Amino acid sequence: MLRLFSRPIAVAASAAISTSSSFCDKKKPMFNRILEKTNFKNILNSEAKLSIITGENNCGKSTTMHSLLDELKKRDSSRSILRVDLRQTGISTPDHLVNRIAAPFNLSVLESYKILGLVENVEIRAGDTAGVKVEFKKSEQLTKFIETLDLLTYNLQIKFENSAGTGATSLPILFIDEAQKLNRLMKTPDGEEALQCFFDFCVLNTKQNPRCHIVLVSSDSFFLQWVKEHIQVGQFTPYVIGPLSKKEAERYWKEVIIPDFYDKVGRASDPPPFEDAYSVAGGIIMYLDDYAEEYIWNNKVSPATCGLIREAEFHFSLARDSVEESVLGSWSPDCDKILQDIVHAPKNYLVYKDAVEQYGEVLVHEMIRANILRLRPSPQFVYDIEKPPNDGIVTISYPALFYYLKEEEYKKKETEK
């Protein structure tokens, strides 16, 4: 069975890549990711579907989708949209999961189940956490979990029939962010069966009896492959919200970064060149912000000397240690070779299955878990790579690390001369 998640040391290093900056902290206007929002708006306004969205950390998956859901709700205030953020709420038992999913559903139906003895307690919560809390009879937790999913299915059917009766075409939406944390259920008694029941619930209500949209979002490289262990291919559709295309990144630079720069330092100073920022930040908005912020305090900063590169160097050192402590046992010449192959590839990626065939699944997976490599499993809505293949690809995990590795290789060659 596939393991999700990077090892803690690599995650910590990755989290440190972006420095805190006023560009990131201040309230800026929402950047309209026109391509992604148009695509997903069409998807969520069409027939029911289970959508799996993956993408790098800090690339704007959650921000883009929440902005779109806000627009859909504003356009149709009667539309049922449930958002579950697993960053904020721990999922460690089946009842934790179903409490989060049941929250916005019809209380009267839950009360009827209480009368029937299917749940032990129903509690209304006020304020920001308004909704329904279900407490299960502990001795029958899994049974109650399954019955409550059945309840939710029944509730969705009622909503679907009511919408059809009024001529409405807006299906309910269940949106779960950081969905890889569902994996925590595997560590609990009955958790594996409960997790499979949840995935069956997703398929039932999007494929077999299409009543709603379900969207699962994750930044974990292996999430899509993990889902395939529980749901057959063809019963869901994978998508990517990744870095901006270079054209869109430049639009963000002109529409957001440059005005902020002039607001801070005035027009007497020249703003940082976009090409410099893009060489180390790519199309990741958070990193573009970081480079611009650093330039304000030091207008002599260059791609080779900026903080993003220093963080990449630090992260790479920790990540190498992480690989050496993994089942590989050491940093082998093949570890260097796969990085060189990606850096020198025409489009700076390797096809995943080719990389696994040449270097072995263990090495490739351990370098992905160490956050040195990134597995991009779907080409759907990938805009920062021109004409990506239909298969999954492996890239360097983020732009500054790519820049650092390329520069280090150049320095090594110069030294050897």
Describe the structure.
- This protein has 417 residues and is α/β, with parallel strands linked by helices.
- The chain has helices spanning 8-15, 22-25, 34-44, 61-75, 94-102, 107-115, 141-165, 191-208, 223-228, 246-265, 274-281, 285-297, 307-324, 333-344, 352-359, 361-369, 399-416, and strands at residues 50-54, 81-85, 121-125, 131-135, 173-177, 213-218, 237-240, 350-351, 373-376, 393-396.
- The strands form three sheets. Strands 2-5-6-1-7 form a five-stranded parallel beta sheet.
- The longest helix has 25 residues, at 141-165.
- The chain is globular.
- The N and C termini lie far apart (47 Å).
- Residues 5-26 and 106-139 have low confidence and may be disordered.
Q: Brief overview, please?
A:
The protein is α/β, with parallel strands linked by helices and 417 residues long.
* Spatial strand arrangement across the major sheet: 2-5-6-1-7
Share of residues in helices: 40-55%
Main sheet attributes: strand count, strand direction, barrel closure: 5 strands, parallel
The end-to-end distance, rounded to whole angstroms, is: 47 Å
Task: List its traits.
5-stranded parallel beta sheet; alpha/beta; 417 residues; 11% strand; 51% helix; globular
Explain the layout of strands and helices.
Layout lengths: L7 H8 L6 H4 L8 H11 L5 E5 L6 H15 L5 E5 L8 H9 L4 H9 L5 E5 L5 E5 L5 H25 L7 E5 L13 H18 L4 E6 L4 H6 L8 E4 L5 H20 L8 H8 L3 H13 L9 H18 L8 H12 L5 E2 H8 L1 H9 L3 E4 L16 E4 L2 H18 L1
Parallel strand pairs: 1-6, 1-7, 2-5, 5-6
Antiparallel strand pairs: 3-4, 8-10, 9-10
